[in-house]
Amino acid sequence: MVSLNEANNEIEEQKELKTPFIKYLIGVGLFIVMLFTKNINIKFGVALFSYILIGGDIVYKAFKNVIKGQIFDENFLMTVATFGAFLIGEYPEAISVMLFYKIGETLQDMAVDKSRKSIKNLLKLKAEFANLLKDNNTIMVKPEELNVGDIIVVKPGERIPVDGIVLEGVSSIDTSALTGEAMPVFVEGERKFYQEV
Asked: Region 90-96: what's the mean pLDDT?
């Protein structure tokens, strides 16, 4: 079940992605128009506007970093290369370089976001407590507080908090927090339920 905060965060992320996408789409449209424009002055104007829409944030980051004293980063190198292309009249090359760089950045950001979401989902699978059996009583403790040799009781519907061996009982258990396997595993007394390396 998705919480209200998570839903709001997803809506905000979609809005954040949509605005730059529209800006880059307009930039690409202007780039295509520029390719078919014969008039030099109009071609330069359209190319410059397309360049600003596609790579303006990179140029801004480059100048900001130069002021901070961080000169030789990828933003600075991209800016110098594309400015050079503009100076010699190679507008398509300058815009293409920025466009491909932005596509690469976008794919990288998507991969990082996907990894981040996968890690968050894995953390949700983690059992928050374990029922430690001590002197015929069960005490709720954090899994980190358990020691090798401790006996824990896993009640119906609970996740397995740590690796171990089933001493008593027969059941299907959820080991997804330990093994990543979504299907319940059938276990009975003296059956190991951790993955041996």
From this structure: 92
